[in-house]
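Our platform keeps sequence and structure together, in a single record for each protein. Because each token names a local backbone shape, the row as a whole describes the fold. One such record is reproduced below, unchanged from the form in which we store it:
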Amino acid sequence: MSEPLEGKTVAITAERRADELATMLERRGANIVHAAAIQVLPLIDDSELESATESIIEHPPKIVVISTGIGFRGWLDAAEEWGIRDNFVAALRRSRIIARGPKARGAIRGAGLRDEWSPATEASQEVADHLAAEGVSSVDIAVQLHGVITEWEPTIHLGDALTELGAHVRPVPVYRWIRPVDQTPLIGLLTQIIERRVDAVTFTSAPAVASLLSTAKDNGLLDAFLDALAGPVAAICVGPVTSAPLDALGVPTSMPSRARLGALAKFVTEQLG
């Protein structure tokens, strides 16, 4: 009996957990092509993060917004290196914690903390709307920043949005996204997509989408790339935040009902099998 994805080729753009997703799809018979669309780098100078962490320990904010799971885990690891993790976690217990999605929630609970609310869509706008509804004028809020917003990411800067609502915002930079220094694998992946040699391309983060769009634009491939995604190559995203850059360009996208890696693999199988 043949596997459901036998004869199908799926492109993976993830950096983290790419092997895990590839294994799930290969077990279903898929051929995999992979090129990481982004690299996650820690801050070169983490003195600003250390200062922000010490400030939270000394004066816990009323609200802390955790934007990403990888960012929060990296923050905890940094606090561990500085010898202040226990004090940091104790301070967070005195704050109301909001998670910007399930990955952030998982990291929070993995640290023995509890979040009080998380948006259904992982969207920063939904977090801002939620806090606006309760009123945050003059409220002290720490916001863990997540990477770099590019022209391809139609999303708000949460810290700026909360500042406009009158909140006292403490921005906390933890890491940044960059495009891969060696663009060759990514250009190779774009070529396979443009030549319709893959049946679907998967995305697990909006920065990965933005990176691929930027690389396509820089190499004169943007129109051909968008044409491929509008036709035979399916753009399959883990969730609506990830798909937002493509949605803004009118590219048809699809996604599982739950923003989980296992759900994504199952959805790819349903779409292509």
User: Anything to note?
Assistant: The first strand starts at residue 9 and ends at 12. The CA atoms of residues 101 and 119 lie 6 Å apart. The two ends are 13 Å apart (CA to CA).
